[in-house]
Amino acid sequence: MEILYKSLDNSQEMLLHSIIIQGEMDMMKIDSQVSDIISKVSDGYFLTRDEILFLLKINPHSPDAGFVMASADAINRAASGNKAEVHAQIGVNLSPCPKNCSFCAFAAKNQIFKEKNELSVEDITEVALRAEADGANAIFLMTTGDYSFDQFTEISKEVRTELKPDTVMIANVGDFANEEAKQLRKAGYTGIYHAVRMGEGRETNIDPQTRFNTVRAARGAGLLIGTCVEPIGPEHSIEEIAEKTLIGREMRPCYSGAMRRISIPGSEMEKHGMISEYRMAYLVAVVRLAMGRNLVGNCTHEPNVLGATSGANLFWAEVGSNPRDTEVDTSKGRGLDVRSCMEMFKETDFGMVQGPSVIYSENNGP
Ligand code: SF4
Q: What is 79-352's CATH topology?
């Protein structure tokens, strides 16, 4: 401490003192409204929009915020039996996608990928088998929004036959209707990942209603829904974060969570910058609380230790294409492998679910 003080000028020293004094004062008690909200979740009730907004307004570096994050962590560990999951996502193809979601590396207007490219069925099968052997609890196949649905189901069936019968497969694809949902089920999928994303219809060319319709079609075909409040940037209001949190809850998903927007170089979103991992971890905590006491599963992306101590017990390993990366194969860029994700959970004192996903199971929901 002595050395630190010597390196500070007078104004910095005064600021440090005021932070410490304020902190000591704040530590005397947690705001009663915050503790009432946490008690409400612990007692099995769902938070209202106003309560979610109240949590989102808390000073992020206050004892109240720390209490929110620790409480979300405790509730998450209790619901999951202190078990975490890693799901492996395989990006099947690259394409300049005409849906033009502003935050996405595949958006044609962002001009990151100018030509189409895709993995062979053999390559997809190989990485899926490797992820399965490494202990991934579910295998996701992801495509761009303009990928042929028929081709996707054909590839999926081939991969399905190579995996163990109880390995959980999840589709992360563009929007679809009832018939396609049935085809996904027949191809061996347990569920889908889908979200009404931040700025949907404003920062994307997709009507939010189209996203709702896809979720409804998936449900009708017996597919389980995983969702997330994403991709969050500093440009988004807390009102929209609360709105998207509640939309996710209304989907009756098997998990939600929070993911930040990663800046794509040259994109129109780049000027906004990105939220910090700390802010993302706080949002993970608020979403976890908003989903109620019993849900087994809350994600954050990209994987980070802070998120796993603030209410997240689901990470994704990634290989192939990635909408947040400018590398053709994200395993050489931003994507982590299954073992690295597991290592992070180990560092946060989580055990790992062995075998098929518990999160993507019939009885799991808010
Ligand atoms: S997020 Fe999906 S639909 Fe939007 S541009 Fe990217 S690949 Fe296309």
A: TIM Barrel (3.20.20)
